[in-house]
């Protein structure tokens, strides 16, 4: 089985700092692999291992060399970086470029993270499914594959819903799936010899129309209304706790 | 009946509207008025006639009812077919959906099919002559951005839960209620639902507890939750957690509070290492008093808090537990 995994390199969500003057993230924010994507890679690797054969191909739109290398070191067989002057556009542009690549690859199954930690639209997975006209199963927290049928456990408002589908399908991963493996030293060495391709939207025959964003972003800002409550910062822990106790007593909560 | 301008997709479960879907009337009615056209509601589900009546009282001018056993369960391809059928019937400029797990699947799926814009999880929606401009949270709710989609083609918008108030019901409005027959393709039925394991009720009395102590990812490990448990015991509170925590297996799922977990409205909510992603805050925003202990002064939950201590929870929580035991005579 050929399994494609869509991954993205994002600003490290634990290192996000806002620069009020720039109206943007502080320069030099470290990059990381989007967390849900790592769970998607792990799921793809486990399915390949279960079947004892197959190929796991990872692809990323926009800058993502470190992320793709990490996926190769985890055990993916091949990586594709899609880069071009019109990228990144909006989610539909990303989905269009990925769909063009996926049409060329014709994988049996596609995994993606549920959403990214940066823009967090959650659009790309469903839009790729729409453009390829294949079934979409999102919010996946568990899976089984047997007799050509995927059984997927989804976390939704009402509980855990189990869906079945025959590949091809696009699956969106949450972090309740199996913990992503850490790259081993051997994996890192082997990754260097694995095929890694860099292509442009033009190579894939993506049209200018498809590369034109339909949604534009206009900078970042923080909620102007600051906290209305008491905020203790840089206060000695013992003092802070005493003030909290007094607050709770005043409100008759203790 | 004038031209349809805005379609709201009323998601249902077990014959009832999802609360987030009713908030769409609060967002959609002013938009339809600005555009000078009808607000059309699609009610999709199985056994949903009562919801259709409710939609009329909340401000819809015209209600399309897709009542079909195939729509009894949330399966995105089937509900998407119902929405596409409604789009063909009403031809709206704006399509509003709730930012539920289903809505967040439906909107991008349809936006992909129509090559249209999807403005995601919006907290504000403004109409300009040439564009729809919306505010939405990004970077896991730590920051906001403004997104813009040009008018003149259809725009899909998901509305964030809690951002728009449900209008006061007005009984006796004259509305048209029409059945909407949906023909499903074979592809729409490629995914089948085999079962639903409902949210475990759990042993905790989380939903009725007057005091709830919640640990988030900042707690760091399953072992560290001992600190949260001890704090909860010292203040006679129930322990809850965020989705990140239950997904990581640090705590059982029945302790999860939020969109895919439980809703709580305690007298006192005490969050430890909880940043306050909307997934979580929709399940606790009704709490009377919110106290937060967090390292990050920019965490969204700090903004919601009545009292926040910015600091290392490993410094604060043991001290707080000890003082609570002393004050409450449990030392």
Automatic annotation (TrEMBL), chain A:
GO MF annotation, one: electron transfer activity
TM region positions: none
Pfam families according to UniProt: ETF
Record bears the keyword Transport: yes
Keyword entries, A-Z: Electron transport, Transport
Domain Electron transfer flavoprotein alpha/beta-subunit N-terminal: residue ranges: 22-208
Name of the protein this chain belongs to: Electron transfer flavoprotein beta subunit/FixA family protein
Lineage: Bacteria, Pseudomonadati, Thermomicrobiota, Thermomicrobia, Thermomicrobia incertae sedis
UniProtKB/TrEMBL annotation, chain B:
One BP annotation, GO: fatty acid beta-oxidation using acyl-CoA dehydrogenase
Gene3D superfamilies: HUPs, TPP-binding domain
TM ranges: none
Cofactor detail note: Binds 1 FAD per dimer.
GO molecular function: electron transfer activity; flavin adenine dinucleotide binding
Keyword RNA-binding assigned: no
UniProt keywords, alphabetically: Electron transport, FAD, Flavoprotein, Transport
Sequence positions that bind FAD: 217, 242-243, 256-260, 273-280, 294
The keyword Transport belongs to this UniProt entry's keyword annotation: yes
Cofactor: FAD
Residue ranges annotated for the Electron transfer flavoprotein alpha/beta-subunit N-terminal domain, each copy included: 6-193
Matches recorded under Pfam families: ETF, ETF_alpha
PANTHER family for the chain: ELECTRON TRANSFER FLAVOPROTEIN ALPHA, ELECTRON TRANSFER FLAVOPROTEIN SUBUNIT ALPHA, MITOCHONDRIAL
Membership in a protein family: Belongs to the ETF alpha-subunit/FixB family.
Name under which the protein is recorded: Electron transfer flavoprotein subunit alpha/FixB family protein
Organism: Thermorudis peleae
